Every structure is written in C-alpha cells, then in structure tokens.
Task: structure prediction
Amino acid sequence: MLPDDLKTEFEALLPAGQSGVAGPSRRTALQAALGLGLGYAAAAQPLQAQTAIHTTAEGLEAGRVSIDANGFALSAYCASPTGKTHLPVVLVVQEIFGVHEYIADVCRRFARHGYLAIAPELYSRQGDASKYTDMARLMSELVSKVPDAQVLSDLDATLKWAGAHGGNLDKTAITGFCWGGRITWLYASHAPVKAAVAWYGRLVGQPSELTPQHPIDRVASLKAPVLGLYGGADTGIPQDTVERMKTALAAGPEAARASQFVVYPDTPHAFHADYRPSYRKEAAEDGWKRTLEWFKQHGVA
Result:
C-alpha cells in the first residue's frame, strides 16, 4: 500500500477518470510505442497521440555510462558537446518512471546549450523501473522503497564522475521533474550546486524512515536558489503547499530568499512531459526558457 504522500502524487499523474490498472487502451499505446522504438517507460501510459519532442544526438557524445557509487555500478545517461571539456554540469533527476527516452532527450537538450547533462538511474539498487507496466505497482513496489539518503549519495557520486569526465564542478546545477522535483529541492540543501530548478516536486509530507524530511523542512539548509515551476491545477500538489513554502523561504537564509516560484494557471501536473497528455506546450516552453536563464543568472552557464 502506498504512503499517503506518494498516493497523491500517483493520482496526479493519472488522466482524469483513470485507475492505476493497465487497461486495453494503455496496452495498445504501449504496443504502438514499442513498435516505434521510442523507449518510453511502460508505466507512463497513455502516450500522446503525436510523437514527442526528439533531440538528435548529432554533434554530441550521448549514451549510457557507468558510475562508481560507493562500490555500486550506477548506470546513467550522459550527453555533452563532442570534444568539449570544462563544461558546466547539470544533474537531471528522473520522474517516477526512471531514466527513459524523455529524460534522455532532456539531457540532449541541455547538451545543445553547452552543458554536460547527466541523469543517473536512482532506483537501480531497488529494481528496474522499465520492467513495470502498471504505475500503482511501480510506486508501491519500487519508488516507495528508495531512501532519500541513497539518492543524495548517488547524486554526489554522479557529480564527482562528471568532474572527472569533462565537467566543471565550479559550475553545477540540478533540475528534476515530479519525483525528481522534490529531490531537486533536497539536493539544493545538501550539496553546493549553484542553482536548481524543480518542476512540480512535492514540497510537504509526513516524515518516514526513508524520507525523514521534505523540502519545506530543509529551507534553513538551502545552499542554492531554487526556481520552482508548478501547475495551478496540479491535483497532487495543492496551492496552499506552495504558499506555505513561499512563507518558509521568505524567512530562510540567502539562498532561500533568492528562490522563486512560477505557477502556471489552469495547468496540470507533468506539464513538461511532452510524450504524455498532460503536456502543455506554452508552459513547458516558458519553463524551459526560464530554466536556462536561471542557470545563467546564477553563474552556471
């Protein structure tokens, strides 16, 4: 059974009126996706009717790499401009669906702007998100078993790897989506990145053994300013929690006071996920532009 915090996030990801059980329409969408070789997470169905954004790897070094994370071989997807070194680094933190084609494409988009962008598989010690076809099982059997401490440590290892493979650790940032949005807030209070952008990540919640604190509990420790990009119609992240976070940030340290929110009216959860029906082109494009500007403003680019 899902914890209440994850249950609300899970429900926000489902299209209106859809349960967590994979039905015929979801299987049909999955079969179509596999036939096209898109590589999108099976549990993320249904897909959009139209093809999602695809960023070519031409001119990039892009693909899977292996990172030594305290003796564990941590897989990651990395993209950077071919032949370039001393690059600014952006950690890209997955949705609940793991590192699938959408997250890889985001890495390639950053690489086209001159970044070394890297997305580690942060569930890999617990299991393989790509093996799940049902979102409810993915959440209860895998996502809810992943400790925050493990995630933060693996991101540390990823950043270290990036520094040894062409990245400039004086210019680092982090961004994440959904599950990764919450992790983005936590990492900005954990490690000395220069800037962070959290896309619709949960801000509050009940503490547990694996998730002892949530972003609102970490405001006093923020080391980097965070730009929060949220949907005004997100059923999993009520607007009152955004307001509570704003109040906490205003009373926090310098990085907290420098943090900002942009809330897009009448916009659902996962509005940047261009392969899903939740995608909202105008908000997604505006958020992407703001992300690049935020990183540049805070000395990452």
About this structure: The chain has one domain: 4-50+59-297. The CA atoms of residues 96 and 172 lie 23 Å apart.
